[in-house]
# Entry
Amino acid sequence: MCTVHKSFSGAQVMSSMSKTPEILPSEIVLGDTLGVGSFGKVLRGKCRGKDVAIKMLHKAVLDEEQLASFKKEVAIMR
# Structure
């Protein structure tokens, strides 16, 4: 799972696993919206030639409670 903040800058692209290399915005092709949730919307996309789901967060900065909840979501999806 790759998560991209709304501003879509390289510093704000997060990988769900610490040993996974950072994914640069230039490697991502955004497609149609698949759904919308409490943290953001999920888009169909392509990354490094693979079909992926990309979550674009509503907020660029999350408080500690929101971040903990989001990390739990990422762990479940992983």
